TrEMBL record:
Reactions it catalyzes: [protein]-peptidylproline (omega=180) = [protein]-peptidylproline (omega=0)
Enzyme Commission number(s) of this protein: 5.2.1.8
The protein, known as: Peptidyl-prolyl cis-trans isomerase
Domain annotation PPIase FKBP-type: ranges: 34-120
PANTHER family: 39 KDA FK506-BINDING NUCLEAR PROTEIN (PTHR43811:SF19), FKBP-TYPE PEPTIDYL-PROLYL CIS-TRANS ISOMERASE FKPA (PTHR43811)
Amino acid sequence: MTTKPEIDFPEGPAPTELVIQDLVVGDGDEAKPGDLVDVHYVGVSYDTGDEFDSSWNRGESISFPLRGLIQGWQDGIPGMRVGGRRQLIIPPEQAYGPAGSGHQLSGKTLIFVIDLLGTR
């Protein structure tokens, strides 16, 4: 995948559980809990559809260890294969906590579309 994904505005109330949807199933190595992953991603707010972060806008992918990320990524990326694109809808409890937790995204349900470029 060489293009930034478009995220369709969701309908209905935000889910209260993590929602994992493979948009493209990869055929490379499978990500495992605790792996270092290389990804491209875009994140938007479920309520407004406003984009709050995107590696695409910086023009380069980013690598990080899964164990250092929000719980929704720790739970939602393992099992994904390199070359795949996956959408995660992450409730506040698995993102940045309830409203008032001190992060600008606290209390918000988040949607990420993640392209897995590598894992090790």
